[in-house]
Amino acid sequence: MLRRETFTTTPPDGDYILSPTGYSWNVRRSNGDGSVQSIAAGERKRAVALSSLIALAEADKTDAWETVGTGVFWLLRRFRPLFAR
After folding, report:
1. What is the pLDDT of residues 11-25, one digit of tens each?
2. pTM beyond 0.85
């Protein structure tokens, strides 16, 4: 089975976003209008920030995204139910 990558410029309201700062990783939550709310900042290890991101998205039944460029996000994990999309 071929998995297709999903990109967006605006993650849906409530989705979690992993973003690098150069020296550390931040976990943020989308407000749906292009703005974000900071959840955790300054984690030095990507694996720790990623596991936190995945756990939060799974608990809230939202999706997890990662910043891959200026204003572009890549879907890491989908937890949002099909009927809610």
Report:
1. 999 999 999 988 999
2. yes
For residue 43, which of 27, 64, 63 has the smallest C-alpha distance? Answer: 27
- Look at residues 67, 49, 48 and name the one whose alpha carbon lies nearest to residue 39: 49
Q: How far is CA 16 from the centre of its chain?
A: 4
Long-range CB contacts (within 8 A, 24+) of 58-62: 60/14, 60/16, 62/12, 62/14, 62/15, 62/16
- Residue 32 pLDDT > 60: yes
Strand order in the sheet with 25-30: 7-8, 72-78, 63-69, 16-20, 25-30, 36-43
